[in-house]
Design the sequence.
């Protein structure tokens, strides 16, 4: 019982970290793309 609870919490922690990480990358890419667009203008 404890094992499955641990697995679930570790899984949700991983998912949260991954989502947070992807969000940061998306923001970074958006910022980079905006800078490139500004340079073109």
Sequence:
């Amino acid at each position: 019982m404890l094992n499955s609870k641990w697995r679930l919490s570790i899984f949700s922690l991983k998912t949260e970290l991954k989502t947070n990480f992807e969000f940061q990358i998306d923001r970074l890419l958006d910022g980079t793309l905006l800078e490139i667009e500004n340079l073109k203008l």
